[in-house]
Amino acid sequence: MNIQFAVKDGVIFVLEVNPRASRTVPFVSKAIGRPLAKIAARVMAGKTLLELGVTDEIVPVHQSVKESVFPFIKFPGVDTILGPEMKSTGEVMGIDVDFPRAFLKAEDGAGTVLPATGTVFLSVRPEDKQASKTIAALLSAAGFDLIATGGTAEFLAEIGIPCRTINKVREGSPHIVDALKAREVDVVFNTTSSPESIVDSFSIRRTALETRTPYFTTIAGAGAASVAMVERARGAPTVRTLQEFHAALKTDSGQ
Q1: How many of the other CB atoms lie within 10 Å of CB of 184?
Q2: pLDDT tens, 186-245?
Q3: Coil, strand or helix: which one is 135?
Q4: Residue 175 pLDDT more than 90?
Q5: What is the C-alpha separation between 246 and 218, in angstroms, rounded?
Q6: Exposure on the CB side of residue 180, measured as CA atoms within 13 A
Q7: 22 within 8 A of 4, measured Cβ to Cβ
Q8: Distance CA 36, CA 53 (A)
Q9: Residue 253 — pLDDT band, cuts 50, 70, 90?
Q10: Host H or E run for residue 120
Q11: What span, in angstroms and rounded, lies between the C-alpha atoms of 135 and 155?
Q12: CA angle at residue 97 from 241 to 128, to 5 degrees?
């Protein structure tokens, strides 16, 4: 089944349940090395899971990350903030021994090449301030330069994290959009919540898209990107085939 959930104010809503296979099925099949669609077809034809030898749970020793690909660049004036609507036009997969490297590969596959050095722009909503502290500290320690708008910059300065202040667009030039157009920013972390802040920051997200600057609009995404960037600074991830990952699975499970 393919299930869509929504969470509001701590309440979980089920939007729809479809009795069909989704794009998650081939993803999971590649992650665990088991052809789930083929197995399902044989079960529908009368075979049992016991006859097919599919009775154990596979727990991979590696990490698999699925990333969506969006067509925003083809639609001028469209905001890149996501909602409940399906907007992706494809998906890619990254696999490695740990999450940072798997996430890094998934981003590369989706066309978002995270840098190993450079300048990171942060502008986060109040409820994300505490989480941004960990992200900023990690990136600063790894040698990245940080810039932020007033509120975020003040918060980071108070806790001793070096950060330059840059104007919001409505505060006048030189502002963050000017810096993006001048290719002075390598990554954008921008989280918003209120309708006013979404409108104010639209030009940041759109300019990042048009200049092909990696950008993340959730604090969870920013956190994942930050650990991946630090991993890239340590060196390029290794490349292994699916067959090598699956062979390791069989060895670890005693098959």
Answers
A1: 17
A2: 999 999 877 777 777 889 999 999 999 999 999 999 999 999 999 999 887 888 888 888
A3: helix
A4: yes
A5: 33
A6: 26
A7: no
A8: 12
A9: low
A10: strand 119-123
A11: 13
A12: 125
Task: Take residue 16 and report the two structure tokens written for it.
Answer: 């729809």
Angle subtended at Cα 154 by Cα 188 and Cα 166, rounded to the nearest 5 degrees: 45
Inter-residue contact 103 to 224 (CB < 8 Å)? yes
The model's confidence at residue 252, banded by pLDDT at 50, 70 and 90, is: low
Length of the chain: 255
Listed in sequence order, the residues at least 6 apart from 103 whose beta carbon sits closer than 8 Å to its beta carbon are 65, 67, 94, 224, 225, 227, 228
What does the alpha-carbon distance between residue 101 and residue 80 come to, in Å, rounded to a whole number?
25
pLDDT tens across 56-103, in order?
988 898 999 999 888 877 778 777 777 767 777 789 999 999 999 999
- Nearest alpha carbon to residue 53 among 44, 61, 43: 43
CA 85/CA 108 separation, integer angstroms? 24
What's the CA gap between 212 and 80, in Å, rounded? 13
Q: Which amino acid is at 105?
A: K
Q: Residue 104 carries which side chain, given as an amino acid letter?
A: L
Task: Tell me the C-alpha distance between 106 and 181, whole Å.
Answer: 26
Q: From CA 218, how far away is CA 92, in angstroms rounded?
A: 19
* Number of other residues whose CB lies within 10 A of the CB of residue 227: 19
Residue among 198, 192, 185, 194 nearest 219 (CA) = 192
